[in-house]
Sequence to fold (199 residues):
Amino acid sequence: MKTVIALTLALVLAAQAVDDWHKKVQSQRVRGSKYTIHENYNPVTIENDLCIIHLDAEVRGEGIATLRLPSRSQAEMTFAGHKATIAGWGETSDNDTIMNTVLRYTDVMTIMKNDDCRRYYELITATMLCANSPDGSGVCMGDSGSPLTITESDGVKTQVGISSFSPSVGCETLRPDGYVRLTEYLDWVEKWAEVDIRP
Fold:
């Protein structure tokens, strides 16, 4: 585990657009002076590509909520075939030159079997998952760290992945995107985020 003290790390909560967060009554800006990087993160193989930001203060308010994490009973699920949603502030095309300031999402992603994803990326391991969309929508530069969610039978969104990488040849190539598979890290998340994982 590597805990780092950040010089400046600001998070904007409950804002649809980063630029006008100060105009929204419910929007909040909070500092995070520490973050914990997974101790086995490998930037070459992109394994264990997750980090927890520790906020300096607890935040609550309108428009602020947590995403449900996978349960321990889902640890062996691959989620292959599930429809998923990805959200982020990244670029919307390969031609973009600046980051997006408006939160965008697409909900036409389908989670793939890892064997199918290995046809595109040899580096795929059991700690990763892939998702793609028939229209090419998905993550792009600047979306790393964004949540990949499914909607369960009770209607609640559950985060099953964290955006890790998009195709090196461009995000409009119809190739799948790569994600951290959260079910492989439930113990780690429970320990360092100090949250309880559902049975």
